[in-house]
Write a structure and sequence with these properties.
DNA Polymerase III, Chain A, domain 2, 25 strands, 3 domains, 8-stranded antiparallel sheet, 6 helices
């Protein structure tokens, strides 16, 4: 293998695939990225056997070939080269090294045979459709913060993507929950997606998909089967296994009749919660919200760490009520709000609260209260 390639193109393709590789691997070759040169392009492939990422970059290929090299080291070397550099890659058979040359820089990385590299099998997706990259980014960004990290309930360790049929037509809906909070967002169902059964995309794959489409403005090709989903963005392809499990009936926990609404400026409330949570214990981070007609009072009171109170102007149409929430969960929701105002719909201090963004009516959040 011998080729020359623009550093920025190589870095772009490498950045799409190298993050799939696990830093600590018991199988040495899985720490490597597969480099395949031919037909005027360099194709890069990385996998952890649950996720596989492939991307390609134009190159001046002088000799076809394939090999594997350490993914993280290769990425770091290319990343630290000058922006406008031209990179020459060549396989040196005498010492089985990958030679990297750029200007006065010289590197030689160990390689393993391409024939030993394991790739994932592809399923013919039973459902195939295209989704605008901006819509997919939105579905991910509005929900992934609520993915559970509790491995015992593995079926919550991802984003649940499915078709929801309602009064306003079919929607492609994404939902994530950890049992203490829930995030939901949706877009109009794209053509061809109606047959999509509920699938759960694992947490790591969600992060890789988001990285894949960052800065991409076109349509994302999606092919889904019962076991895998394949996403295509230009020349980049990401294949991931799905979580084999049943997502709970999340609709049961979304409040439908909360009749007490709090309207407050989002940024003001966010800053107040952040300040008052400074004296909250790290484990519970409980903040008490006292709802009054023209304000909301935030209180933290702890015997060891101290006492804090904040008042924020608000509009509230119910009886005075005290309710507690995890401060970290509140701050996460505040980050999702696009508009100036945030709306909380309450029933009573023991029932979940529905959080809405007037500027984004297709996204909703549910927070479970804490005892105060």
């Amino acid at each position: 293998m011998k080729l020359s390639i623009d550093r920025s193109e190589l870095l772009r393709a490498l950045s799409h695939v190298q993050s799939v590789v696990e830093r600590r691997n018991t199988i040495p070759i899985l720490s490597n990225v597969l480099l395949s040169a031919g037909a005027g392009a360099l194709t890069l492939t990385a996998t952890d056997l649950d996720i596989e990422a492939v991307d390609a970059a134009d190159a001046d290929v002088k000799q076809d070939g394939a090999l594997t090299a350490p993914a993280q080291t290769l990425f770091d070397v290319i990343r630290k080269l000058p922006d406008t550099a031209e990179v020459e890659l060549e396989y040196l058979p005498e010492n089985q090294r990958l030679s990297i040359q750029s200007g006065r820089s010289r590197f030689a990385l160990p390689t393993l045979p391409a024939s030993d590299f394991q790739t994932m099998t592809r399923d013919d997706g039973s459902v195939q459709f295209a989704l605008d990259a901006a819509d997919l980014k939105r579905l991910i960004d509005k929900t992934r913060f609520a993915i559970s990290t509790e491995e015992t309930r593995y079926y919550l360790n991802g984003v649940y993507l499915h078709i929801h049929k309602g009064d306003d037509g079919e929607k492609l809906r994404a939902v994530a929950t950890d049992g203490h909070r829930l995030a939901l967002s949706e877009v109009d169902a794209p053509e061809g997606s109606s047959a999509l059964a509920g699938i759960i995309i694992p947490r790591k794959a969600v992060a890789e998909i988001r990285r894949l489409i960052d800065g991409y403005d076109g349509e994302i090709g999606i092919s889904a089967s019962e076991a895998k989903i394949v996403l295509t963005a230009g020349r980049a392809v990401l294949t991931t296994k799905l979580i084999d499990g049943s997502f709970p009936d999340y609709a049961r926990v979304i409040p439908q009749n909360n009749d007490k609404t709090l309207k407050v400026e989002n940024v003001a409330l966010e800053k107040a919660v952040d300040r008052v949570a400074t004296v909250s214990t790290e484990r519970s981070r409980s903040v008490k919200m006292t709802l009054e007609t023209d304000k909301v009072v935030l209180t933290v009171n702890h015997a060891e760490t101290g006492h804090g109170v904040e008042e924020v102007e608000a509009e509230y149409g119910g009886d005075t009520m005290e309710i507690g929430f995890n401060a970290r969960y509140l701050l996460d929701v505040f980050q999702q709000i696009d508009g100036d105002l945030i709306h909380f719909d309450f029933s009573d201090p023991a029932s979940p609260a529905l959080v809405r963004d007037p500027a984004d009516p297709v996204s909703r959040y549910v927070l479970m209260p804490l005892r105060v």
